[in-house]
Amino acid sequence: MPDLGGTFCVAADINSRGYVVGASTTSAGAQHGFVWSPPSWGQPGNIRDLTPNGDPSYASSINDAGQVAGQHVTPTTASASIWTPMRGDYVVKDLGTFTGLQTWSMGINDAGFVVGYASRESPYQADAFFWQNGEFSLLPGATSIVYATALTGLNGNSVQVVGVSQDAATGAFTVLRWKVTLTQGPVIQ
Protein backbone atom coordinates (compact mmCIF):
# COMPACT_ATOMS: atom_id res chain seq x y z
CA MET A 1 0.00 0.00 0.00
CA PRO A 2 1.46 3.42 -0.90
CA ASP A 3 1.83 6.32 1.54
CA LEU A 4 1.67 10.13 1.20
CA GLY A 5 5.41 10.54 0.63
CA GLY A 6 6.75 10.79 4.21
CA THR A 7 8.48 8.42 6.60
CA PHE A 8 5.45 7.30 8.65
CA CYS A 9 2.29 5.46 7.60
CA VAL A 10 -0.20 3.52 9.72
CA ALA A 11 -3.46 1.76 8.85
CA ALA A 12 -6.20 2.12 11.49
CA ASP A 13 -9.33 0.43 10.09
CA ILE A 14 -10.77 -1.44 7.09
CA ASN A 15 -14.39 -1.76 5.93
CA SER A 16 -16.09 -4.76 4.30
CA ARG A 17 -15.35 -3.37 0.80
CA GLY A 18 -11.59 -3.36 1.51
CA TYR A 19 -11.15 0.41 1.92
CA VAL A 20 -8.42 1.25 4.47
CA VAL A 21 -8.00 4.42 6.55
CA GLY A 22 -5.14 5.70 8.65
CA ALA A 23 -2.50 8.40 8.70
CA SER A 24 0.70 9.11 6.83
CA THR A 25 3.24 11.88 6.85
CA THR A 26 3.66 13.90 3.69
CA SER A 27 7.04 14.67 2.13
CA ALA A 28 6.90 17.96 4.11
CA GLY A 29 6.49 15.99 7.37
CA ALA A 30 2.83 16.87 8.08
CA GLN A 31 0.50 14.08 9.27
CA HIS A 32 -2.59 13.59 7.11
CA GLY A 33 -5.45 11.13 7.26
CA PHE A 34 -5.95 8.98 4.18
CA VAL A 35 -8.33 6.56 2.49
CA TRP A 36 -6.87 3.77 0.39
CA SER A 37 -9.18 2.15 -2.14
CA PRO A 38 -8.40 -1.41 -3.23
CA PRO A 39 -7.58 -2.41 -6.82
CA SER A 40 -10.63 -2.52 -9.07
CA TRP A 41 -11.32 -3.27 -12.75
CA GLY A 42 -7.64 -3.88 -13.43
CA GLN A 43 -6.61 -0.56 -11.86
CA PRO A 44 -4.16 -0.41 -8.94
CA GLY A 45 -5.26 0.66 -5.47
CA ASN A 46 -5.33 4.40 -4.83
CA ILE A 47 -4.47 6.49 -1.77
CA ARG A 48 -6.37 9.75 -1.18
CA ASP A 49 -5.21 12.51 1.20
CA LEU A 50 -8.19 13.63 3.33
CA THR A 51 -6.71 17.09 3.96
CA PRO A 52 -4.72 17.98 0.84
CA ASN A 53 -4.96 21.71 1.71
CA GLY A 54 -2.32 21.21 4.40
CA ASP A 55 -4.34 20.79 7.62
CA PRO A 56 -3.11 17.95 9.84
CA SER A 57 -5.57 15.08 10.28
CA TYR A 58 -5.90 11.46 11.34
CA ALA A 59 -8.40 8.86 10.11
CA SER A 60 -9.30 6.24 12.71
CA SER A 61 -12.41 4.43 11.41
CA ILE A 62 -14.42 3.81 8.22
CA ASN A 63 -17.94 2.44 7.79
CA ASP A 64 -19.34 0.50 4.83
CA ALA A 65 -20.81 3.68 3.29
CA GLY A 66 -17.25 5.06 3.10
CA GLN A 67 -17.70 7.67 5.86
CA VAL A 68 -14.45 8.23 7.74
CA ALA A 69 -14.12 9.29 11.40
CA GLY A 70 -11.02 10.88 12.90
CA GLN A 71 -9.59 14.25 13.83
CA HIS A 72 -9.09 17.39 11.72
CA VAL A 73 -6.79 20.13 13.00
CA THR A 74 -7.24 23.73 11.81
CA PRO A 75 -5.38 26.85 12.96
CA THR A 76 -8.07 27.38 15.64
CA THR A 77 -9.23 23.92 16.74
CA ALA A 78 -8.57 20.18 16.86
CA SER A 79 -11.96 18.58 16.31
CA ALA A 80 -13.54 15.16 15.97
CA SER A 81 -14.53 14.95 12.31
CA ILE A 82 -16.38 12.92 9.71
CA TRP A 83 -15.38 12.81 6.04
CA THR A 84 -18.19 11.81 3.68
CA PRO A 85 -17.54 10.71 0.09
CA MET A 86 -19.26 13.03 -2.43
CA ARG A 87 -18.79 13.10 -6.19
CA GLY A 88 -15.31 11.57 -6.13
CA ASP A 89 -14.08 13.72 -3.23
CA TYR A 90 -14.40 13.75 0.57
CA VAL A 91 -16.24 16.54 2.39
CA VAL A 92 -15.19 17.10 6.02
CA LYS A 93 -17.59 17.96 8.84
CA ASP A 94 -15.98 19.04 12.11
CA LEU A 95 -18.13 17.95 15.06
CA GLY A 96 -16.84 20.50 17.59
CA THR A 97 -14.99 20.23 20.88
CA PHE A 98 -17.84 19.13 23.23
CA THR A 99 -16.47 19.39 26.82
CA GLY A 100 -12.78 19.82 26.07
CA LEU A 101 -10.09 21.68 24.20
CA GLN A 102 -9.99 19.04 21.48
CA THR A 103 -11.97 15.98 20.41
CA TRP A 104 -11.19 12.73 18.62
CA SER A 105 -13.58 10.47 16.69
CA MET A 106 -12.48 6.88 17.26
CA GLY A 107 -15.31 4.90 15.66
CA ILE A 108 -18.19 5.29 13.20
CA ASN A 109 -20.85 2.67 12.44
CA ASP A 110 -22.97 2.19 9.32
CA ALA A 111 -25.76 4.36 10.79
CA GLY A 112 -23.30 7.28 11.04
CA PHE A 113 -23.14 7.29 14.86
CA VAL A 114 -19.73 8.34 16.18
CA VAL A 115 -17.85 7.66 19.43
CA GLY A 116 -14.68 9.23 20.74
CA TYR A 117 -13.41 11.50 23.47
CA ALA A 118 -12.90 15.14 24.38
CA SER A 119 -9.74 16.11 26.28
CA ARG A 120 -8.90 18.89 28.73
CA GLU A 121 -5.60 19.91 30.32
CA SER A 122 -4.44 20.95 33.85
CA PRO A 123 -5.06 18.28 35.05
CA TYR A 124 -5.58 16.03 32.05
CA GLN A 125 -9.15 14.72 31.73
CA ALA A 126 -10.93 12.91 28.90
CA ASP A 127 -14.69 12.56 28.45
CA ALA A 128 -16.06 9.73 26.30
CA PHE A 129 -18.88 10.73 23.96
CA PHE A 130 -21.54 9.33 21.66
CA TRP A 131 -22.50 11.58 18.72
CA GLN A 132 -25.57 11.39 16.51
CA ASN A 133 -27.31 13.93 14.26
CA GLY A 134 -25.30 16.90 15.53
CA GLU A 135 -25.67 16.08 19.24
CA PHE A 136 -23.02 14.95 21.74
CA SER A 137 -23.94 12.73 24.72
CA LEU A 138 -21.54 12.09 27.59
CA LEU A 139 -20.67 8.43 28.28
CA PRO A 140 -20.08 8.18 32.05
CA GLY A 141 -16.99 6.60 33.55
CA ALA A 142 -15.57 5.83 36.99
CA THR A 143 -12.58 8.17 36.63
CA SER A 144 -11.69 11.51 35.08
CA ILE A 145 -10.07 9.82 32.05
CA VAL A 146 -12.58 7.93 29.88
CA TYR A 147 -12.23 7.04 26.17
CA ALA A 148 -14.85 5.51 23.87
CA THR A 149 -13.11 3.56 21.13
CA ALA A 150 -15.61 1.48 19.11
CA LEU A 151 -19.32 0.82 18.60
CA THR A 152 -21.57 -1.78 17.05
CA GLY A 153 -24.18 -1.41 14.38
CA LEU A 154 -27.73 -0.50 15.27
CA ASN A 155 -29.54 -3.49 16.77
CA GLY A 156 -33.20 -2.59 17.07
CA ASN A 157 -33.02 0.72 18.88
CA SER A 158 -29.70 0.24 20.67
CA VAL A 159 -25.96 0.43 20.06
CA GLN A 160 -23.18 -1.10 22.15
CA VAL A 161 -20.13 1.10 22.79
CA VAL A 162 -16.81 -0.04 24.26
CA GLY A 163 -14.00 1.98 25.73
CA VAL A 164 -11.62 2.32 28.61
CA SER A 165 -11.31 4.30 31.81
CA GLN A 166 -7.89 5.12 33.29
CA ASP A 167 -7.15 5.95 36.91
CA ALA A 168 -4.95 9.08 36.77
CA ALA A 169 -3.24 8.24 40.10
CA THR A 170 -2.34 4.59 39.46
CA GLY A 171 -2.44 4.37 35.66
CA ALA A 172 -4.70 1.29 35.92
CA PHE A 173 -7.15 0.73 33.06
CA THR A 174 -10.70 -0.59 33.28
CA VAL A 175 -12.62 -1.80 30.23
CA LEU A 176 -16.07 -0.21 29.84
CA ARG A 177 -19.19 -1.08 27.87
CA TRP A 178 -22.16 1.20 27.44
CA LYS A 179 -25.56 0.34 26.00
CA VAL A 180 -26.97 3.36 24.18
CA THR A 181 -30.72 3.13 23.62
CA LEU A 182 -32.03 5.47 20.93
CA THR A 183 -35.40 7.03 21.59
CA GLN A 184 -35.94 10.77 21.08
CA GLY A 185 -32.28 11.09 22.08
CA PRO A 186 -29.78 8.55 23.35
CA VAL A 187 -30.31 6.99 26.78
CA ILE A 188 -27.02 5.63 28.13
CA GLN A 189 -26.90 2.71 30.54
Which terms would index this structure?
single chain, 189 residues, mainly beta, 2 domains, four-stranded antiparallel beta sheet
Please give a structural write-up.
- The chain is mainly β and 189 residues long.
- Helix content is 0%, strand content 60%.
- The strands form four sheets. A four-stranded antiparallel beta sheet has the order 1-2-3-4, with no helix packed on it. A four-stranded antiparallel beta sheet has the order 5-6-7-8, with no helix packed on it. A four-stranded antiparallel beta sheet has the order 9-10-11-12, with no helix packed on it.
- A hairpin with an 8-residue loop joins strand 3 (31-37) and strand 4 (46-49).
- The radius of gyration is 17 Å and the shape is globular.
- The chain starts with a strand and ends with a strand.
- The mean pLDDT is 90.
Unreliable spans? none
The coarse silhouette is globular
Overall tally of structural domains: 2
The overall average pLDDT, rounded, is 90
Rounded to an integer in angstroms, the radius of gyration calculated over CA atoms is 17 Å
Task: Please give the order of strands in the largest beta sheet.
Answer: 1-2-3-4
